[in-house]
Amino acid sequence: MNATKKKWYKLDNAAKMIPSTTHFANTRVFRICCELHEEVDPACLQEALDRTVKSFPYFNSILRKGLFWYYLEESEKRVTVREDDLPACQALYLPGKKDLLYRVNYFGKRLNMEMYHVLADGTGAFVFFRRLVTNYLILKHPETGTDDRELLGMTEEENVRDAFNHYYTKGRGLAQLRSMSFHWAFRLKGPRDDNMENHLVEGVISTKAFVDLAHRYETTVGILSAALYIEAIIDGMNMRERTRKDVVISVPVNLRQYFPSSTNRNFFGVIVIRFLPRDYSGDLHEIIDSVRESFARQLSEERIRKTMSSYAALEHNAAIKVLPLILKDLGVQGFSKISQMGVTCSVSNMGRVEMPEALTPFINYFSAFTTAPSAQITIATFGDKMTFGWASGIATHQVMRAFYRKLHERGIEAVVATNDHDA
């Protein structure tokens, strides 16, 4: 009797680099959370997950090594819902182990999903997670009469398309990558966790209050968030560091805004915001103006298209294609170490989370966390709740303390929580 041939998927362009850069606390795992107004029912959550996975078979894959590239192979394994009793953002991929690359857990009123970045970016993962939460609430509250497909408008036609490859056009390619200069950036300091685990800090504020603050500064929520983050980082720098180091923030950009695609896989680029603390006089407007200029310059459609093609050029380069995977891994690791020295930390804005109107009364808020070489703050908005999710292998949180102090000074109060046992 012949065994059924398993389906396999080539990794998208961004995912190809992820296994090589998965180390210690930087597990390349992100966590998406939904806090409800009621306790989570584990049996109902398991049924909702089983229903959801049927619409996203691609997520039920394991990561395998080929001679030249990693690839994904479909698996008959299924994720079992469990109580949240593991360290946050614990590694999902361990070489040699054939495990699925996401997990679903709960604690009290909180429902969580963690996913390895190889499968999807934050936007694609949120599509899956929103469907999961929707299915859960439909099962738990059938009286709402909600239809998830109708209200969420889900389609399957492009869910697994490699959008990088689809939109790639041959151009400057590697020449553009070589032209990108690296500057030694200020690096966040503090003791690393002894067990190489991630420390999370979650802050919840009023969306309206933050939007009003952005209007007072005549800017956008995204620009104000980055500017306040930079201001908080500068607070922790001594005078010598301020004169010699730049604060460099990397910002992931959802490429679906520029290239029509409904893929649930990775489809993002990165822009870099650079600010010189030695030029800062203490006026937040100075940082806002600098961030605004960086956004305007780097988010033009022409610049985004060139940058996306330069990333994809790595995959299409003939010399790189024939290198064995072990050599590719070494090259990516070396490039990653150098690039990390040029980045202070990251800011990612997931925007507003949309849910069926009939289900919103059961939801308190959404939040998200992403591991990074240094630290990353991930912003999510639902109704009048805006959350800032910080994840870092650094065991202390001076930057986030300064961040929330800056908000407090401007009249915005935050409810802050952490997974630290001694906080």
Task: Explain how this protein is built.
The protein is α+β, with helices and mostly antiparallel strands and 423 residues long. It folds into two domains: 8-147, Chloramphenicol acetyltransferase-like domain (Chloramphenicol Acetyltransferase, 2-Layer Sandwich); 170-418, 2-Layer Sandwich (Chloramphenicol Acetyltransferase), CATH 3.30.559. It is 34% helix and 23% strand. Strands 10-9-11-13-14-8-15 form a seven-stranded mixed β-sheet. β3 and β4 (70-74) form a beta hairpin. The chain is globular. Residues 150-154 and 175-181 have low confidence and may be disordered.
Keywords:
single chain; 423 residues; Chloramphenicol Acetyltransferase; 5-stranded mixed sheet; 13 helices; 34% helix
Tell how many strands the DSSP assignment holds.
Answer: 15
Count of all domains: 2
Structural class: alpha+beta
Question: What is the terminal-to-terminal distance?
Answer: 59 Å
Mind telling me the CATH superfamily name of the largest domain? Nonribosomal peptide synthetase, condensation domain
- Name the beta content range: 15-25%
**Top CATH class of the largest domain:** Alpha Beta
The count of helical stretches stands at 13
Instruction: Profile the largest sheet.
Output: 7 strands, mixed
What is the CATH-assigned architecture of the largest domain? 2-Layer Sandwich
Determine the CATH topology of the largest domain.
Chloramphenicol Acetyltransferase
The helix-strand sequence is EEHEEEEEHHHHEHHHEEHHHHEEEEHE
**Compute the gyration radius: what is it?**
21 Å
State the low-pLDDT regions, or none.
150-154, 175-181
Helix content: 25-40%
Strand order of the largest sheet: 10-9-11-13-14-8-15
Mass-distribution shape? globular
Round the mean pLDDT to the nearest integer and report it.
89
